[in-house]
Amino acid sequence: VGYARSHDPLASDDAPTFYLNGWEPWLQMQHKDASASKLEAFPGVEDLSRGYVEEFEAHANAALFGKGPTAATAAAKAAATASDRLTKVFIAPRGARTRLHRDNHGAHARLTVARGRKLYVALAPADAPRLSPYDGTTATVSGRRDAAAPAPGSSPGEADSHSPVDVLADDVRTRFPDYARATPYVAVLGEGDTILVPKHWWHFAVSLEPSVTLMRNFWSSTNLDDLTALQKSTLEAKLRALKDAGLLRGSIKKEPTRAPQITSSSS
After folding, report:
1. In 168-183, which positions are buried (b, 16+ CB within 10 angstroms) versus exposed (e)?
2. Packing angle, helices 49-65 and 224-244, rounded to 10
3. For residue 253, which of 77, 66, 126 has the smallest C-alpha distance?
4. Which of 37, 72, 183, 253 lies at a C-alpha separation of 20 to 30 Å from 65?
5. How big is the chain by its Cα radius of gyration, in Å?
């Protein structure tokens, strides 16, 4: 925090700006009140993430190990950990940037500025072809790999979630002519302001002054299919690990092939 307050991005030194991006403090706190569950509720925003993951884990545990209190407890613990991981803190000095990207796994995002001011630029999913997204093999128009680019071989749908476009660059329309046909939406957030970024929307941010931001990814009734796909992929990876370790015996009683039915509620 002291660094963020004092760092001058216009100083003459060549050291890169340090940006605490995506810190998960609630996973590192051990006392009983450390859960981020109190931060899940937000007026007018439907967040089904924790309840859905718990239902899915319960179905999966029942299929693998049978129903019982141990399986239910394990499902609740897994859901709490997964939900805590979705809530992150960003601490940034003036000038620190979050490159243009869209969040993975079809998640919505909620960003609240707790301290300072930040500029956000958002673009609709339809503008993706105009943003020259990384394809996992190429990085920039010059063919040189950028440090922020996903590595080749990234999983489908993840490699194209970042863009080399700097929306604030003076030459952005020269380097990326297609960007001239995109429609950016711009907002400046002050302390206590929140921006909601729907699934697949591209967004870019820059701190106008030292800032602390609270971010949460979440799924609602509009994108639960994306969370289903993520949970099934995670489950398949666990099953492969169990099989490779020789710990998976017999047949699965009932595979959770569809989404559990849970009650939607806005909070």
Report:
1. eeeeeeeebeebeebe
2. 30
3. 66
4. 37
5. 21
User: What residue has token string 């849970």?
Assistant: 262
CB within 8 Å of 222: residues ≥ 6 apart = 199
Q: Contact at 8 Å (CB) between 133 and 161?
A: yes
In angstroms, the CA 211 to CA 205 distance is 11
Pair of tokens at residue 249 = 């015996």
pTM for this structure? 0.80
Q: Which pLDDT score, from 0 to 100, does residue 14 have?
A: 57
- 138-154 residues labelled b (16+ CB within 10 A) or e (exposed): bbeeeeeeeeebbeeeb
What's the rounded Cα separation, in Å, for the pair 260 and 267?
A: 20
Regions in the chain scoring below 50 on pLDDT = 12, 137-157, 253-267
Check residue 63 and give its pLDDT.
79
End-to-end CA distance of the chain: 31
Tell me what pLDDT residue 143 has. 35
Q: How far apart (Å, rounded) are the C-alpha atoms in residues 264 and 19? A: 36
Residue type, 128: A
What is the DSSP annotation of 93-137?
-TT-EEEEE--GGG-EEEEEEEES-EEEEEE-GGGGGGS----SS
Tokens of 231: 């949970």
